[in-house]
C-alpha cells in the first residue's frame, strides 16, 4: 500500500463549520470510503485554511473513482464544495523522505 499526502485550501471564514462537519461524518460516507480503498485516512487543518490529508491505498485513481461512483459521495461533495477556495481538486504531494524505507535499506 502507498501513503498519499494531498492538500486543499479551505476558505478561512468557513474553518469552524468545516471542523464541525468532520467531527461526525455520515456513517454511510465512512463505510463508502473504507469500501473504496481509503485506509488510515486523516485530515489536518491549519488556521489559515491549509488542509493536509493522508491515506493509505493500493491505487489512488481507483479509490477516487470508486468514491465518485457512490451516491453518498455525490451528496457529501455537493455540500462540501462551498468550503474550498480552488475547488475540490486534490494537490498530491511527492514523498521526499521516508524514515522506514531508509532504515530498511541499512539492513
Automatic annotation (TrEMBL):
**Taxonomic placement:** Bacteria, Bacillati, Actinomycetota, Actinomycetes, Micromonosporales
GO annotation, biological process? rhamnose catabolic process
Coiled-coil parts of chain: none
Per the record, the gene is rhaM
One molecular function GO term is: racemase and epimerase activity, acting on carbohydrates and derivatives
What is the name listed in the Swiss-Prot or TrEMBL entry for this protein? L-rhamnose mutarotase
Which Pfam families is this protein grouped with? rhaM
Q: Which organism is it from?
A: Dactylosporangium matsuzakiense
| Superkingdom, natural source | Bacteria
